[in-house]
Amino acid sequence: MRNSFSLDGKVALITGGNGGIGRAIALGYKEMGATVIASGRNSQKNATMAQELGDGHAVISLDVRDEEAVNQAVTAIVEKYGSLDILVNNAGIARRINILDMDTDDWHAVIDTHLNGSFYCAKAAAKAMVNAGKGGKIINIGSMYSLLGPPNVVNYAAAKTGLLGLTRGLAVELAVHNIQVNALLPGWHKTDLNRALLDGPLGEEIRHKTPARRLGTTDDLAGAAIFLASAAADFVTGSSVVVDGGYSIMDRRWED
Length: 256
What we know:
The chain has 256 residues and is α/β, with parallel strands linked by helices. The protein has helices at residues 20-31, 43-53, 67-81, 104-132, 154-174, 195-198, 201-208, 219-229, and strands at residues 11-14, 35-40, 58-61, 86-89, 136-141, 179-186, 240-243.
């Protein structure tokens, strides 16, 4: 019987794949048989990730805010590996500032990375997938903050909410080409971006408001990302999969 979750023969690009959530997804895809290309802007993290992935895979330097660089990267991937079958839009940054103090640069830095960058990558990848005629998968990494109203990160919440609209619109337009587009909405998972916050009192408060009674790890997202990238999800498109241990459905603090 065919393994519906196998990624054998697939070529996957994971932006922001040199650490955190992207790294976990990249390594998960590798384990399931995919050829993985991770991208990032930090040369030291890129080098470390290249060692982890090993031969047959690659880590490339890419700024997703640069549309021309994105187009060139996708073209190079197709030329070298023969196709691009899976795109994970994961690259992101955070700037935690109250709206009264947020300047235009703080707004654009986050919007340009999360939302515009995902648009550039999705457009380039979709064109490559359509030209190949084999279908494909696009997975946008959103956030539970697509659903909630967080303090001091209105730029991040706006960008991640915009990704849901992008996901649904792409899913409708690309379905005729057998390209499925879905979103993963992580909850509180420890990453390089939030580790300092979660190692303090806030992390303990979040644990008490999470039915799973713990914070998430980046590995908690790998399984859902594998599912959405695989043939098992061929009839799943335009969906948002929340991976937050139940945090977004909890209505009160849960005492131990």
